[in-house]
Amino acid sequence: MIGFVGWVLRRVVxxxxxxxxxxxxxxAELKELEEQLVSGLIGEEEFDRREDALLDxxxxxxxxxxxxxxxxHTV
Length: 75
What we know:
Blueprint: H1 2-20, H2 23-38, H3 44-66
Helix pairs in contact: 2-3
């Protein structure tokens, strides 16, 4: 039973990471962030801080896709 729970938890973490680093998800979040800036819901400082975090996620996605030797493989 403990082995099964561990397996389930690993799968949940894997799926959460997949969604967190999905370029389409990050792109949608960037678009939404820009809309918030344009509409005045957030200021430049907040936009810059959150944009940097999203761009870091995209960079990490590319790093993960490149693999340990810089060769591309599917995530």
